[in-house]
Structure formats: structure tokens, C-alpha cells
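Per reviewer request, we include the raw input and output of the structure prediction for the construct analysed in the revised manuscript.
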Amino acid sequence: MHDFLPYAWFKGKCVPFEEAKLSIATHALHYGTGAFGGMRAIPDPQNPKNYLLFRADKHAKRLSQSAKLLLTELSEETILSSLRKWLRANKPTKPIYIRPFVYTSDLGIAPRLHNIETDFFIYGLELGDYLSPDGVTCRISSWKRQQDSSLPLRGKISGAYITSSLAKTEAVKSGFDEALLLNSNDKVSEASGMNLFIVRDGNLITPGVDQDILEGITRLSVIEIAKHHNINVIERPVDKTELFISDEVFLTGTAAKITPIKRIETTLLNSHRPIMEKLKSSLISITENKDQSFSHWITKVEIF
């Protein structure tokens, strides 16, 4: 049972969550012609009147770019303005996950992106840990990550997540927590909804944007934090074999935050993860606005 916040942003205004309804003939429902974002926000530990959004500008920019991939315009300013109004209406008091969504709202049966109406909504729910902070078990999925030549992978296009859904369920039904997907070249791409990092000989390594990954905002943040701490970062292809012999392996994402992988297939991984722990501690400090070196990543919204 999810604790959805009482109000949604729907058709340009805040309405009770239960009243934000779509027709069963909505185009995006049938063809996956939507794009979404995922954001984390927490109460300000220093000022209970404020709510803290993590990298709101980056999230708004990615959603705006995703909308362009659907041949529609949704400005970053519209997203951020709507988000502020929505937060003030809800007045959340706990950590939340926010889901903004742009979609083809026409009622029709032709798969297309031209001459079609689009719309935008926001809803949210209270959310603690999406994955166990103690670590997860993973299997290599039988499903491959799509290619950018067949799907616009630079955006969070809703239709693309059928592969993630298949991979996640395959993993859970076969006794694992999460799936790792290879790309069409049999290199490691990402998890069902998270990016992947490994550590080898003190180097932080992650598949680059040429490996059909989603350009994750938490991924980008971890890279920037690592460089701030003088940790060498390498973006390159990662082989499946490397997963089993790495010093550390972990996942990153808005929902997952930073989550260690403790076992892949039948191989137990190291439980000593000093680089991951350093990055995780730093990320928590930043999201709580306690690290002034990264205070520009935090957007404060006064909601009381």
C-alpha cells in the first residue's frame, strides 16, 4: 500500500489525488508515448518550513529533453513552477519520491507523435529505502538493454520500461533482488532502473553513455562527488567477468540512492566497500544541505 500525497498536479492545477483520472482510451496508455522523471525531496533538517529538492534543475532539464523526444514542448520553468505549487499544496513532512510525467493525452488509436495533444502531471508518495541499504543480490538478465538506434535512450521514455519490467520480474522470480542487463554488444549496461559502478584497484569505473545507459542524475552526481574527493573515475565498457572480480560493486539511482551489490549469480562479493561508503556518506550530507561545496545542488521550497 503506497502513501500517496493528497494532491496531484493535473491539467495545470492541483487537484485531489483521487480526482486525477485518465480515460482508458488515452494514447500514451496504449503506445508508451510518455516520459517521466523521478525526484527525491526531504524536509529541511535546519528549517521545518522548507523542503529540499535534490538537483531539481537537472531533473527538470532531463524531463524537458525527454518531452522533445516525444516531439512536444515542456519547459524547465513550467516543470519547476508546477513542482513548487504542488509541494506547497501537499505540505509533506516526510521524505518523498516525486513522479512528473509528460504524455500524449489524445484519445485515439493511431501510433503517432504528430498532430496530437500532450499533457503533464505530477504525483508523489512517501518513500524510504527502495532497495535494502544492506545490499542486494543480482542476476544477469536474459533480456538485453535496448539500442539507442531503436529507442531514444537519452530520455526516460515510458514504453522502454517493458524491458526493465521483464528483467526485474525474471530476477525476483528466480530468487534475486535485481537484474543486470547487458547491451547488444554483451557489455554491462545497467540494472532495471539503476546505473552501475564497480571499483578496481582504487579506480571508480562505470559504463559510459555509449553503452546504451540512461544518463542517470545520481550517476552524474556520484561521478562529480568522486572527483571532488580525488577518486579517479573511468567511464568505459565493463565486461560481465569484471563484476565477479571487482573490489566493490554498487548501484545508483534516485529511488535506489547508493545501494551495494552483495552477490551476483552465485558469486559473493566483498562486503568491505570503503569507496562506496565514502561516496554514500557524502551524498547523504549533500542531500541534507550540510555540505556547502554542493549547496548549489539543493533547491529550497518554503511550504509552510
